[in-house]
Amino acid sequence: MSRPPRLPPGFRLIALERCGSTNEEARRLAEEGAEEGTLVWAREQTAGRGRRGRKWRSPRGNLYLSLVLRPRAAPAEAACLGMVAAVAVGDALGAFMPPLTEVRFKWPNDVLVGGGKVGGVLLESGAQGPGRLAWVILGIGINIESCPDDTPFPATCLEREAGAKLELETVLEAVSRSLRRWLHIWREEGFQPAREAWLARAWKRGEVIEVRLEDETLAGLFEGLDASGALLLALENGRHRRVSAGDVMEASVRT
Ligand code: BTN
Q1: Dist. CA 189–CA 130, nearest whole Å
Q2: Ligand 1 residue neighbourhood (C-beta within 6 Å)
């Protein structure tokens, strides 16, 4: 029997059996004036979306949620919220894992457990005139019971890594509490604490990675993040590149 999740103070739950995309639903509510803290949770999505225009397959059994925020920050300052959310998700999921199972962050917003992608964050925003945000939606998908087996980067699911059945409501509660905590830290202290937490568990930091951009693929040493969360790469030709959008992959073996 399922039970209603208990969300932390400041959160208002909209629970749906099914919808197209919780981000779409949250955007619609935000445009109608929904308050910060409105959290749309669906058991199933029929048009779930991922970063960079990709689909996010969303069968029942996994977690799909979108949180409405109304940050009093410039768009450039709020751009790091996807990474703040990834850190919050990573912290929350760590508690369900057996000791020694590693939680890592793959740039920008992916959460890896045991080497596979278990969750991702889709950040969307709407403007209210130039330089002013009307709303930000943090869309979070976490593979609990199942995961796709044909993704460019290998996926996994939490129950496989935990070796145990997990209740969706319990994971939703833990993620919400962690989001509340990390968003509070971000409001009070800015991005730096989340940036440090992210870097401490960054996947492949100090190693050669491949970064797929819109129209080119770069290979280089993953040096770190700048203050805004952009990825810093040292290329083989001795130059440095700052990347603000792309997909990080394992470097291909070159012969
Ligand atoms: C990624 O590409 O890694 C981000 C995936 C984000 C998926 C979540 S599921 C809940 C919310 N609704 C959506 O349509 N997408 C996000």
Answers
A1: 25
A2: 21-23, 45, 48-51, 54, 56, 64-66, 110, 120-122, 139-141
